[in-house]
Amino acid sequence: MKFLIVGLGNIGPEYALTRHNAGFMVLDRLAAQHGFTFSMTRLAYTAKWQHKGKQLFFVKPTTYMNLSGRAVLYYMKQENIPVENILIITDDKDLPFGKLRLKPKGSPGVIMV
To answer: What positions carry a catalytic annotation?
Structure first.
């Protein structure tokens, strides 16, 4: 079974350690802990990792936050991953700092594919 895990953020040093890049930072931490690396590919930095029989495909879009749906759609189709197997990691200014929320569907302000 395949899964697409997308960490949202913006490229560039001015965003590097900001809350806006939480998605990038989560994926970087996973890569460091589990020994996989990202490579620059079309529209994104990508990595693959096998875990407990699951194929995980990680994406850090280089399209900036507002256009990240293009990268998500491209890799969803490229890797033949259904929408129900996609996890998008992003910051949410409406949540208190340090609070996590998992949602099965989006709403305004949340990128949907």
So the answer is: 20
